[in-house]
Amino acid sequence: MRPVPAPGAAPEPAPAPVTVREPLLRHVVGAALRRERLARGRTLKEVAERARISMPYLSEVERGRKEASSEVLAAAAQALGLGLAELLALTQAQLTDAHPATAPAPAAPAPAPEQPTDGRATSLLTHRTPRPQRPGDTADTMLLAA
């Protein structure tokens, strides 16, 4: 229970809102690079040589200490057998899993079609597919039959 303030007393200040700190992109991208490198059993030296990046710089990128250019990220991804889009998709998946509140809201369902006035029946069938795995994929497929 909260004590009731005395009449005329100043109201208690409202609690400060809780802010969720967004992770820095360089941390998430670096972690994705390191995870993929280790999953493929590659050493830092191998990836750095193949990507034509200095080993200390790639290490700094993986640890999130350096903000790599898109050219460096593409080279590192390619050295791991990934495209830049695949690396960014892994990054997006990690961001979405870590902060579901920042994930894009699902699209609103389409309104049901109105029934025809001539007495014919119309049916609506909606099939929900799993969450999209790539940007541009759709989550719903709608089939209409008259």
Overview of this protein structure:
With 146 residues, this protein is mostly helical. 38% of the residues lie in helices and 8% in strands. The protein has a two-stranded antiparallel sheet with strand order 1-2. Helix 1 (25-39) packs across helix 5 (84-98) and helix 2 (44-51) packs across helix 4 (70-79).
Give keywords:
two-stranded antiparallel sheet; 146 residues; mainly alpha; 8% strand; 2 strands
Q: What is the overall shape?
A: rod-shaped
Distance N to C terminus: 60 Å
Proportion of helical residues = 25-40%
Which stretches are low in confidence, meaning pLDDT under 50 for 5 or more residues running? 122-129, 139-146
Main β sheet profile: 2 strands, antiparallel
Number of helices: 5
Structural class assignment:
mainly alpha
| Arithmetic mean of pLDDT | 77
In short:
It is built from five helices and two strands; from the N terminus they run H-H-H-H-H-E-E.
